[in-house]
Amino acid sequence: MFKGDSGGKEAIQAVIVGDHFGNEFRPVTDSLPFALLPLANIPLLEYTLEFLSLGGVDETYLICCNGGRIIEDYVERRVKNCAPWSRSMKVVIIMSETCRSFGDCLRDLDSRGLVRGNFILVEAGTIGSIDLKNYLQKHVNNCKNDKNAVATVLFENCGAGNPSALSKNEITLGASAKNRILFYQNKRSSKIEIPLDIISGNKTVDIFHNIKDVHVMICTSSVLPLFSDNFDFQTRDDFIRGLLMNEEIMGSTIYTEFIKNNEFGVGITDWRSYHATSIDVMHRWAYPMTPDAASAGLYRYIKNNIYRSQDVQIGKNVSLVEDVVIGPKSVVNSDTKITKSVIGPNVYIGKNVKIANSFIFNDVKIEDNVEITHSVIGRNSIVHSKSRITMGTILGIGVIIPTGTKLEDALVQSHDPLNKDPNAKIGPVAYKVRFDTDETAESGKESYSKATSRLHLHFPDEDESSEGDSTEQSEDLSYRNSPLPDDTNMFLTEVMDSLSRGYEDKLQCDNLILEINSSRYAYNVSLKEVNLNVVKAILELAFQNLPCKQSTGLQYWSTLQPLLKYFKPILNNYVRNRDAVEDALQAVEDVASSNSEIADCVVKVLEWFYDNDLMAEENILKWNSGLDKKGKLYKKVQPFISWLEEAEEDSDSDEED
Amino acid sequence: MFLQEFQAVILAAGKGSRFCEITSNKPKCLLPVGNKPLIWYSLHKLQQSGFKDVIVIVLENQKLEIQSTLDNYNLKINIEYVTIPGNEDLGTADSLKRISDKIKTDLFVVTCDIITDINFKYLVDLFRKHNASVCTLFLNPQQDQLVVPGPKSKYKPEKDLVGIDEQTNRLVFLASISDFENYVPLSRKLLRKHPHVKLHTNLIDSHVYIIKKWIVDYLQQEDISTLKGELLPHIVKKQLLKPTQSDTNASLINIKDKNDIFHFAKESELDLLIREKSTFNDHIGDLRSCYHDDVIRCYACIADCNSVGIRVNTLPSYWIANNKITEIWEKITNGEKLAMIGPLAEIKSTQVDNKCLIWDGSKLHEKTSFKNSTIGSNTEVFSFSRVFNSLVMNNVTIKEKVSIENCIICDGVTLENGSQLKNCVVGGNHTVTENSQHTNEVLTIAEQLMEF
Question: Would you call B196 and A192 a contact, using CB atoms and an 8 Å cutoff?
Fold first, then answer.
């Protein structure tokens, strides 16, 4: 019907770059092209094509790279099946299998000379319901007013702190009064620095933050030659940045438009956006593209956004809480609980399984008593019973997880990676892998960025507070404007620094004591706190020296022991009277309450203190009586306490001990 | 006693250091604009807005002159003069500190050098609506390109960088552009809260502020001397802060927090309760409470493009104000007619065009010509002289065959026979010698300028 609208006018053309060119979605995309990655059990490409066709596009060029043949077959099959989009839109497939980046695809397209006029540039992961004609018209107007205008980029305004905008990167946009982009930053930083010449060169500059890239760019035909002329343009960001930076040389300008409040648009670039978009689709933001509409009659839409296929077998006492899609021919056995997850077609789920915030692709078998949260299970995988798969674990295709495996934040594939890492093997058909993406560069915060970059949606509240008031404005004002940095905490870190340096360089403990004392005066810490923090520092230091992050109490003890031995003179210096012993015990308790490792070996730690005459029985017994009787720590300590009590009785009876 | 909602304060102790050529021997607030002294416009505006009383802060040594001048103008508003010593270099915030004991309610601070037709209602409404800490009014710059008397130096205005949240009118960023070298840093936290900030570079601060009383109290113990330069940016920055919430160590805090801004900036329980019960929220997106629980809130109002607003604190703006005053008079005074020619002026000249303002007590002899000019009181212009496009203040003597074009002539100047001036500024009590010719110059008695 859109064809009728455009009448004799030029056909509206669109270009889809059909690949993602990154390691982000591996190993799931190892043998499945990114464009066909299912989202709510429908391939991404289907959404994109439907979006373009509803948006009024007449002709679409689909550039295929990895797995081009599979995509081609898929498109042909869909055309044959009269997919809705195929009725109003022609799809032309361009095979560019040698292309390795977004920029390469556009250079390839340029060399073919297929696109003549304005066109709409999207990516395979772009989903939306946007009236593209409206923005095309705006783009044409921009070009009329500014001969140098080459592109209009669409963004969505998310309002303050909207979680779905929280991709790894945050966009800050500076635009002139006429919507010309002056400044573009796509990275998260606590200070955003806007060049002064931009500001002083314009009467007003609008600064937009909390905006979402819709991944739709409306281009004039000169965009393609610009890519060809600049071989360093690899991504769309490169293009925007390059044009802004060399504005004088290239003489091209970019404009921006914000989509209306009732329109929806998103580009899937990583698992987090995949997750957020899945929820959005289930919440029907992408209407008319909803699971029940896309494959007519296949799903039944019931309350709490549950999409249940007709031929799903559901056992007794299964609870589908909210936001769940279950594909056809799947089986869910009794006592299973599923929430905020997508279950593909032909999936078998055993009894008493817990699935939350996860994506299970087709033909997966999950046995009894498995727990899956914030994870993706690739197709044909089998998860054997009693496994726990959590924290952004991604299983590739055909992976078999052995019984009782616990996985956190891991990428798992079915075949052996070539590097021989003995830790990598989980089972005969399951190997941990790493992909060298840009994330490894910031290795310091790796665990954090991993945990937040995959499915583990991390809501902004906590980092807001951790960012704190102190950093923001301390530059110009005295102590008043920020809460005082906690001297005691600073003291603790100072002590830890001293100790770790001392341990590495094998410094004299006497010197370290001097150092600690001087820190003590610098931060004005009481003797009590000194004792507490010195012991704490030694215990914490062992964590820093641990070989790997996940460790048992035993490993911890083996690293702690040499440290204790080395720092014994220091301990002797500080832990010398009854009060100090109490402080030391308090330190043990504090550290144990926040770390399970030390809780496991707390007995050993206490024993060491006892054996080295740093703590006396009565201190420990007194401390024990003050412990929370229901706490974990209390239970752990009990064997030692009873041994102590026995020993006491012994010594009471035989005088010679 | 019944308290007014606002107390009005006019700051008139400025020395006019930005255009000392003409303010060296006359209080800035008494410079003539049209046929009124500059401060009259602020007073009239407040009177028009419904204020019954106003505190005018003046320099000690200028008080008598200002008071006696203003007594001639029959203003209905009660003026209470407060003096501050003239020998110290005191800023606008210092002025406020001096009158803190007189301040019982929120303040409506106006400078003496604003000429505007903007209805203050909008500003007051903004203040009331959000229970703001500070509300400011910004003006759009005047578009006119006039040839300003004096040397042809490129006039560089001081530019402010004003960041205003587009949705809420929150003033979130305020600094002078000259504070930055290459980059303007904006904190992420700020942008998170205010996703669409418009940075303005060409706005002019009107120096009309509504200020909560607590800020004056807070000012007492801060080392801040100016309102615009220091206090406002300070308060605007403080908006991002949250009160420290550590009740555990109450005794400790009392010592430190005596000086803390949140010790002063407290909202009443009732206000908080009302906001809690209300469905109003100033932002969309996250599910945080209204204003993100900010205690300090600054708002800014930008004047309509078509409205008149001139801040007379530089020579160009003074020149513009004088040139446009006949045009904008009715707008400012709400339809009053401007008496162009004082009834007691003695005019024998036949060539006075209808754009001239002639004050009482001036004496224009025969065969003189005047176009688009203002002639102050007790000024005498002898025959065969002409005054075009110029501003002549009081007690000036213009001898014969003098030609003045596009000039500002200050009080007590004598222009000897045959002198010709074009685009000049003549400072107070100067004498221009016979038959001299000057263009684009500032003529003053040098010693007077030395002071500045």
Answer: no
How deeply is A59 buried, as exposed, middle or buried, from its count of CB atoms within 10 A (0-12, 13-18, 19+)? middle
Q: Is A484 on the interface with B (CB under 8 A)?
A: yes
Number of H helices, E strands in chain A: 24, 36
Residue A341, classed as helix, strand or coil, is strand
B310 pLDDT above the threshold of 70: yes
Q: Are B199 and A177 in contact (CB under 8 A)?
A: no
CA distance from start to end of chain A? 99
CATH architecture label of B346-449: 3 Solenoid (2.160)
pLDDT tens by residue, A224-269: 888 888 888 888 888 888 888 887 777 888 999 988 888 888 888 8
What does the pLDDT read at residue B201? 87
A225 in B contact zone (CB under 8 Å): no
Euclidean distance between the first and the last CA atom of chain B, given in angstroms as a whole number: 46
CA distance B39 to A7: 67
Average pLDDT value for residue range B273-296 = 80
Q: Which residue of chain B has the CA closest to A199?
A: B201
Name which of A158, A170, A192 is nearest B185 (Cβ-Cβ).
Answer: A192
* All domains of chain A in start order, with CATH: 2-267 (3.90.550.10), 298-452 (2.160.10.10), 480-656 (1.25.40.180)
Strands A341-343 and A359-360 turn out to be parallel
ipTM: 0.82
SS3 string, A153-174, reads: EEEEECCECCHHHCCCCCEEEE
Query: What is the pLDDT at residue B446?
Result: 61
Does A489 lie at the interface with B, CB-CB under 8 angstroms? no
Sign of torsion, CA A187 A188 A189 A195? positive
Give A103-126 as a DSSP string: HHHHHHHHHHT---S-EEEEETTE
Picking from A203, A209, A472, the nearest residue to B202 by CB comes out as A203
Task: Encode B56-91: b = buried (16+ Cβ within 10 Å), e = exposed.
Answer: bbbbeebbeebeebbeeeeeebebeebbbeeeeebb
For chain A, list residues with pLDDT below 50: 1-8, 164-165, 437-452, 458-485, 654-657
pLDDT at residue B110, rounded to an integer: 92
- Is A641 in the B-facing interface, judged by CB distances under 8 Å? no
* Structure confidence by residue, pLDDT tens digits, B192-213: 888 889 999 888 888 899 999 8
* A418 CB burial (10 A radius; 0-12, 13-18, 19+): exposed
Interface test with B, best of A164, A199, A464, A482 (most B CBs within 10 A): A199
CA distance B451 to A102: 67
Backbone angles phi and psi of B237, in degrees to 5: -65, -35
Length of chain B in terms of residues written: 452
Return the minimum-mean-pLDDT range out of A471-475, B99-103, B305-309: A471-475
What is the model's pLDDT at position B252? Answer: 46
Whether residue B135 is predicted with pLDDT greater than 90 in this model: the reply is yes
Q: With an 8 Å Cβ cutoff, is A464 touching chain B?
A: yes
Minimal Cβ distance to B183: which of A195, A203, A473:
A195
Secondary structure element (H or E) that encloses residue A192, with its range = strand A191-195
What fold does the segment set B6-179+187-242+259-333 form as a domain?
Spore Coat Polysaccharide Biosynthesis Protein SpsA; Chain A (3.90.550)
A465, two tokens:
């507070």
Q: What kind and span of H or E run contains B426?
A: strand B425-426
Domain ranges of chain B: 6-179+187-242+259-333, 346-449
Task: Tell me whether residues A469 and B194 touch, CB distance under 8 A.
Answer: no
Chain A residues with CB inside 8 Å of B184's CB? 193-196, 199
- Pick from B196, B260, B284: CB nearest A208: B196
